[in-house]
Automatic annotation (TrEMBL):
Keyword terms, alphabetized: Membrane, Transmembrane, Transmembrane helix
Species in which this protein is naturally found: Bifidobacterium biavatii DSM 23969
Name of protein: TrbL/VirB6 plasmid conjugal transfer protein
Alphabetical list of Pfam families matching this protein: TrbL_2
Transmembrane segments: 79-98, 147-176, 212-232, 252-272
InterPro entries, A to Z: TrbL_Firmicutes
This protein's record includes keyword Repressor: no
Length: 283
């Protein structure tokens, strides 16, 4: 009869190993690299549908700003020239900004990707990054436990294993939804920008840029969170790791809460990373 050594070892390795490194690789990708077709579709929507609307709104906003500036001159020719000149300069800058909105967003994405790649390098030098995984540490004891002992061990670690897998799926879903939100924001890149020409609607453009920056910055907070989480898991599950020849059941029962805590913290990582990104941008 086949034993359950490999399933037990793999489950313990999955719990103690933390997060799949592919998640960090995805976070380091820009929107164009993550899914070129979706990014191209977002650009097409912006070019064909949103840009004409933005141009119309820009003409209306610019006209209103010039009309408002004309009333402020109040017959003073020199003051009127200065006010009108300032408004024209502001409108020109906003128009230039809106025309190159997609390029500006690409710059933000490039900066974020560079920071994420640099932060990911910290993971390789993190404490315990080269330590043997928990399941591999306990392999000999699992082999000696026999089929009955291995079955009981699987039952004990099943809940932490399932919890860690669910938390990992949630984290992966957050990464995918982050990119989806970036694609949606990219579709309307120029529209909020043209409202920055008016003092009354300026916050629409500022809010859009803050939101895009926050969503992009979440890749950095998630990466930092993953690094901190892996360090925590390495210390919590390996600092007082299993000693060869020790009591297998006593070790698992004594560390059951710690095994489950790692999975719970992985789920909380998503909430904390989002809150940190909002705090950085003043929300």
């Amino acid at each position: 009869m086949a034993d359950l050594v490999e399933p037990c070892v793999n489950m313990l390795n999955a719990i103690g190993g933390g997060i799949d490194g592919s998640i960090l690789d995805r976070l380091a990708l820009g929107p164009a690299e993550f899914n070129a077709s979706l990014y191209g579709m977002a650009g097409s929507v912006h070019t064909s549908a949103v840009k004409p609307v933005s141009a119309t709104i820009a003409s209306i906003v610019f006209t209103l700003e010039l009309a408002r500036a004309a009333t402020r001159a109040d017959g003073d020719r020199e003051l009127g020239v200065k006010i009108i000149g300032g408004v024209l300069l502001k409108c020109a800058l906003v128009l230039l900004f809106a025309s190159n909105a997609a390029l500006i967003l690409q710059g933000i994405d490039a900066v974020v990707s560079q920071i994420v790649s640099a932060a990911s390098g910290v993971l390789a030098a993190a404490p315990g990054s080269e330590t043997q995984l928990l399941g591999d540490q306990m392999r000999s004891a699992i082999e000696d436990a026999g089929l009955i002992g291995q079955s009981g061990l699987m039952v004990l670690v099943l809940i932490p294993f399932i919890a860690s897998q669910i938390a990992g799926v949630v984290l992966l879903a957050v990464v995918y939804m982050r990119f989806m939100q970036i694609y949606m924001l990219t579709c309307f890149a120029s529209l909020p920008i043209v409202f920055m020409a008016s003092e009354h609607t300026r916050m629409m453009g500022v809010g859009y840029l803050k939101r895009y920056g926050q969503v992009s910055f979440q890749a950095i907070t998630l990466t930092v969170g993953v690094i901190l989480y892996r360090t925590f898991v390495g210390e919590a599950l390996r600092l007082d790791g299993y000693v060869d020849g020790g009591d297998l059941w006593q070790y698992i029962i004594a560390n059951f809460g710690t095994l489950l805590l790692g999975a719970i913290m992985l789920g909380c990582l998503v909430i904390v990373s989002s809150a940190t990104a909002k705090a950085v941008f003043g929300e």
